[in-house]
Amino acid sequence: MKFRSQEWFDGRDELGLQHRSALRTMGIDFDQYRNRPVIGIANSWSELNNCNMNLRDVAAAVRRGILAAGALPLEFPTISLGEEFMKPTAMLYRNLMAMDVEETLRANPLDGVVLLCNCDKTGPAQLMGAASANLPAIQVNGGPRSPGHWKGIEIGSGTDLWKYWDEYRTGKISKQDWSDLEQCLSCGTGACNVMGTASTMGAVAEGLGMMLPGSSTFAADDAARMTVAEESGRRIVALVEQNLRPSDIMTSAAFDNAIRLCMALGGSTNAIIHLVAIAGRLGIELKLERFDELGRTTPCLADLKPSGRYLVHALHSAGGVPAVMKEIEALLDTTCMTVTGTTVAHNLMGAKNRDAGVIRPLSRPLRAEGAIAVLRGNLVPLGAILKISAASSHLLQHEGPALVFENYADMLARIEDPELDITADSVMVLRNCGPRAVPGMPEWGAIPIPRKLQAKGVSDMVRISDARMSGTSYGTVVLHACPESAAGGPLAVVRTGDSIRLDVPQRRLDLLLSEDEVSNRMANLKPHASQHLRGYPRLYVDHVLQCDKGCDFDFLRPANDEELKFIPPVVGRS
């Protein structure tokens, strides 16, 4: 077969010579790879991203696999999105990284690509870019970090930070305890080791069929991670030779499988935004109702933090993602194709649940329904999200007075004020934290419980925002209020003292005001003015879609089949 890269290397005489000579300047003898595929290794390694620090070693293993399969590996860097360092949020730059991946693939002589990811936004950004470029692709993640231990307790990164931060704020642990915890919280390379966004998106990539089965949960320091990376390098060559592309794998049915898997795992709310965005690149309209429909019929089986007791290494020992998928096999479309070149059904033939305490059987679920609920109502006409598995059951039906914070700075300034007029029944509302407002929709939704209430034993309250929250967080937190306040959503007109009703069984979130009152307030709402006048943030504010569309850019989603199928010509071909 003729490979795409041959248009560069076997093209018009002077251009072909120039391209082959460019390889020779790198010490590569093109004659050894003539008529063989060229495979890109998209590496999101960066010293600004601690989660991805092992990807240099992973890339070396991938390279071995590509060479063993007789192809030419060419590694290239992309921007890297690290949750700890990037402000205001890595989410602001997800679309930029997706563009980086897409355009690098489109512009260069590559026949396929291995996508190396780990931290939360790196995985979905790569899948978005790969979906748009639609070259054969396979994803490999860096894996979760091994757990640390503090006072004999196994520490889960993220989730336990929020827990012990509350204890430190309220004087339950000492300054020395807090310092000791710092030494144990992130013990080594890798992503958060709870079922936060990084682990969720790794699992979701498996569920979509874009990662080798069982590969996402190997620990970052497990030698088997390098073995599976090498196998992925061999596998991408076969995908190119079979011309099996992301659009052949990430179908509507595959997205349904990924949603069910996310629900069964108690996965991160962020997965909803990312799945919608990836699907949108393929012309698949993935509506929020689909998440709720599948969530209502998919039990939560994995007893994992932040919803349960265990860390990701326990999931891996129990059989990993394939074991969870095996338990819900009857709910999946097992005819879907995967990067193995075979179907989900074939991949699950040998899967087995090795620990029914970590992965509950379908007959004895952790929760009868999935982890995430989609809410509607006059406060969120385009939807909002609540992670039921991490919420308090007594708050799933709640009515209380609103306490409104105008923005994140306002919340930080007032939340610990002893004179703050707040009770356990109050509904805290945080606005101007959505995609356009900050911009980037930071993970600010898990508003802290005021210290004065924690001292009275209050550990959870209803909180509502147009922000996101970390996949490692927990609590009765309504997120992704859509449209956001900065886009003229009803959240913008809520006033302190207004009554709000949350009814999760009915999937409702309502501002208890008359239609006329809401309409009058909306009519007098002043448009949000962004402070960003130039650069990428300006581009983001002008073109970002709302979260029900995945917060992608309007110009990156194909508007019709013609745009979806368009492949730009290679300039300078013979």
Describe what this molecule looks like in 3D.
- Helix content is 35%, strand content 11%.
- The protein has helices at residues 6-9, 13-24, 55-68, 94-107, 122-133, 159-169, 175-185, 197-208, 223-242, 246-249, 252-265, 270-281, 288-296, 312-317, 320-327, 344-347, 408-414, 451-454, 515-523, 535-543, 561-565, and strands at residues 38-43, 72-77, 112-117, 137-141, 148-150, 153-155, 372-375, 384-387, 397-405, 427-430, 463-465, 477-479, 499-503, 508-511.
- Helix 3 packs across helix 9, helix 4 runs parallel beside helix 5 and helix 8 (197-208) packs antiparallel against helix 11.
- It folds into 3 domains: 36-146 and 188-347, no CATH class; 149-185, no CATH class; 372-523, Glucose Oxidase, domain 1 (3-Layer(bba) Sandwich).
- The strands form 3 sheets. An 8-stranded mixed beta sheet has the order 7-8-12-11-10-9-13-14.
- The protein is of the alpha/beta class and 574 residues long.
- Strand 9 (397-405), helix 17 (408-414) and strand 10 form a beta-alpha-beta unit.
- The protein has 21 helices and 14 strands.
